[in-house]
Specification:
The protein has 383 residues and is of the alpha+beta class. Among the domains are: 14-112, no CATH class; 121-274, Thrombin, subunit H. The protein is built from 6 helices and 12 strands. It has helices spanning 15-36, 40-112, 289-331, 334-349, 358-372, 375-382, and strands spanning 121-130, 138-141, 154-156, 161-168, 173-177, 184-189, 195-200, 207-210, 223-226, 238-246, 255-260, 269-274. Helix 4 (334-349) runs antiparallel to helix 5 and helix 4 (334-349) packs across helix 6 (375-382). This is Cell shape-determining protein MreC.
């Protein structure tokens, strides 16, 4: 009896032959699809047919993610709503207090006859792009001279000072941020009223409060606002907060590190302030007493030298005139010489006026002597 396997267990081709066949078929499909795009239609039909199955398989995941997002969104909205209500209440209270303070300030200023502060006009602007220089902290806003943007105007956002306008174009303007190494802002500490100047740093991530003595009362957490003494920034704008104070014995000033209150790099919408300072200009510096005395001495010395030179010039002119007169008397005839001698003797015999200068007298006498010498000759001629 011949043994044969049941029909269910008939193997057909060998496993190696089937492996080689399917490998060759896979390579042929890959090459044809890569070279000739033959399976694009088949792939599209399979994708369209399997899409409902895919969406049905993803329904549990979408439901779970939607429930989680709903819970998180609800919690976030409740938290934000609570914070905004508290902030609204605080701002309402501050608005009431500011209105009362403004009325009181106006009354006191009218009582003391002080000039009212000018209102600050603001122009909204939006940052367009950063500048090309990576070593500076500057941005370009979409407002320019056509929108009344002026050079030097302060730039702020809802939190505080962001920077200052440094270049103005017709439709754009360049703003130097507060953290730039070349930017300086006069500030004062709210708690103590100490005034100083805050500068940016080369890294652009912090601020440096300079010219603060070691003995000054500066603590971490103090808030800095603009002092308004420079006439550029309005007083009272929030600028920075102190984070660290380093006092060393070998230096006269303390190193105070601050961080800006406003998000300098995160701000997108800004306000450009048009601040007009009505303070009169600074008077001219008066000279010191020592410098005034030196100037007076110099002027006196110059006047004395000038008068001496004038006297010398006059004396020289008179001597020259006297010499010319003597020479003319020597060359003149005998009669003329006698007459000149007689007039000279008569002039010398007359009393000299009191207001006549000694130099003139000394000049007149030598003029008479040369003319008197030919007198004997003239008399001998007459005899």
């Amino acid at each position: 009896m011949e043994y044969s396997p049941p029909p269910l267990f008939k193997q057909g081709p060998s496993a190696l032959a089937r492996l080689i066949f399917f490998v060759v078929l896979a390579l042929a499909l890959l090459i044809s699809d890569a070279r000739f795009r033959t399976l694009e239609i088949v792939r599209g039909v399979l994708g369209a047919g399997l899409y409902p199955l895919q969406r049905a398989a993803l329904v549990p995941r979408d439901m779970f993610m939607g429930a989680a997002d709903l819970a998180v969104t609800s919690a976030t909205l409740r938290t934000d709503n609570t914070q905004l209500r508290a902030r609204n209440l605080r701002l309402s209270q501050q608005a009431n207090e500011s209105a009362q303070l403004a009325a009181e300030n106006a009354h006191l200023r009218s009582l003391l006859q002080l000039s009212q502060r000018s209102t600050i006009q603001s122009i909204p602007a939006e940052i367009q792009y950063d500048t090309r220089d990576p070593f500076t902290q500057k941005v370009v806003i979409g407002r320019g001279s056509q929108q009344d943007i002026q050079d030097g105007s302060p730039v702020v956002n809802e939190n505080g000072v962001v920077g200052q306008v440094t270049r103005v174009f017709p439709m754009q303007a360049e703003v130097t941020l507060l953290t730039d190494k070349d930017q300086a802002v006069p500030v004062q500490i709210v708690r103590t009223g100490l005034r100083s100047v805050i500068y940016g740093t080369p890294k652009g991530d912090s601020l440096d409060l300079r010219f603060v003595p070691i003995s000054a009362d500066v603590l971490a957490g103090d808030e800095l606002v603009t002092s308004g003494l420079d006439g550029v920034y309005p007083p009272g704008l929030p600028v920075a907060k102190v984070v660290r104070v380093d006092k060393q014995a070998d230096t006269a000033f303390a190193r105070v590190v601050c961080i800006p209150i406003a998000q300098v790099r995160g701000a997108r919408q800004l306000l450009v302030l048009h601040y007009q300072n009505e303070v009169p200009p600074r008077p001219a510096d008066e000279p010191d007493a020592a410098s005034a005395a030196k100037e007076a001495k110099k002027k006196g010395a110059k006047a004395a030298d000038k008068s001496t030179s004038d006297k010398d010039a006059k004396t020289g002119e008179q001597n020259a005139a006297a010499g010319a007169t003597g020479a003319a008397g020597a060359k003149a005839p005998a009669g003329t010489a006698a007459n000149a001698a007689t007039s000279a003797n008569t002039a010398s015999a007359r009393p000299a006026p009191s207001d006549r200068k000694p130099a003139a007298e000394s000049t007149t006498k030598p003029a008479a002597r040369p003319s008197a010498k030919p007198q004997p000759t003239a008399q001998g001629t007459r005899q």
